[in-house]
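Below is a filled-in request sheet from our internal design queue. Each sheet records the structural input a requester submitted and the sequence that came back. We keep these sheets so that new team members can see what a complete request looks like end to end.

REQUESTER: design group, bay 2
PRIORITY: normal
MODE: inverse folding
CHAIN LENGTH: 230
BACKBONE (tokenized):
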């Protein structure tokens, strides 16, 4: 195989990975820790406007499956800076991350808002940067609603699923979480609360304030403890 053909094949592989996974590479056999980034708008069943920076649901799922199946990958760090987005897609990704058998640590940088909250609590341990924020509010929608009572009941059930997940995967009290969701004096055009850095830790939503070093150090300890248990 000549060099030009080899380069073309490598370029095709990179393009294929970008199209199918949103990244230039998939989890490889020689990497110990996989980094998963979730940024911008979480895109699910409906395509977001082209000007939006998005994390696509169909890009995340193959990476998580590859992490679970690859025996050489020992842990995963999830880096979050998201404004939220598709509720069902975000909750599904959260459940999938939480169900991974390998150690996983989440790190909130910038922000992890709305459906980004369960994503932030989906790991075995969570960190938030001192300047990072988390917005907690009820499910909302815009546009035409057909069948108001039925839609309202559906929203209540979806809201309950999110609350149950966050309470199950963090140390926050259920009543406190609901109160934070329904606060009326923090957001000008909405209900909800904004937590900055250590406030998220004080409420029990996030485990610790810290950055990349602390997150990687914690993940390394979780990996070592996981090996002892095997």
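RETURNED SEQUENCE:
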């Amino acid at each position: 195989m000549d060099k030009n053909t080899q380069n073309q094949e490598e370029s095709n592989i990179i393009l294929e990975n970008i199209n199918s996974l949103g990244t230039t590479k998939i989890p490889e056999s020689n990497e110990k820790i996989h980094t998963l980034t979730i940024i911008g708008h979480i895109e699910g069943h409906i395509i977001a406007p082209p000007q939006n920076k998005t994390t696509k649901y169909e890009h995340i799922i193959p990476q998580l499956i590859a992490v679970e199946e690859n025996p050489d990958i020992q842990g995963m760090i999830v880096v979050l800076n998201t404004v939220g987005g598709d509720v069902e897609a975000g909750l599904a990704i959260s459940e999938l991350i939480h169900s991974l058998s390998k150690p996983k640590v989440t790190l909130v940088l910038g922000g992890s808002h709305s459906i980004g909250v369960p994503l932030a609590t989906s790991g075995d341990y969570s960190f938030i940067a001192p300047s990072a924020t988390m917005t907690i509010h009820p499910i909302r929608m815009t546009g035409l609603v057909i069948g108001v009572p039925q839609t309202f009941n559906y929203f209540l059930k979806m809201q309950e699923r999110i609350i149950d997940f966050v309470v199950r995967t963090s140390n926050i009290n259920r009543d406190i979480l609901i109160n934070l969701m329904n606060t009326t004096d923090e957001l000008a055009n909405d209900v909800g609360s904004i937590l900055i850095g250590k406030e998220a830790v004080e409420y029990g939503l996030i485990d610790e304030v810290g950055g990349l070093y602390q997150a990687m150090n914690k993940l390394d300890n979780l990996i070592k403890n996981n090996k002892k248990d095997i």
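SHEET NOTES:
- Residues 29-229 form a domain with the 2-enoyl-CoA Hydratase; Chain A, domain 1 fold (CATH 3.90.226.10).
- Helices lie at 3-21, 57-69, 87-99, 116-120, 148-169, 174-181, 198-202, 212-229.
FILED BY: M.R.
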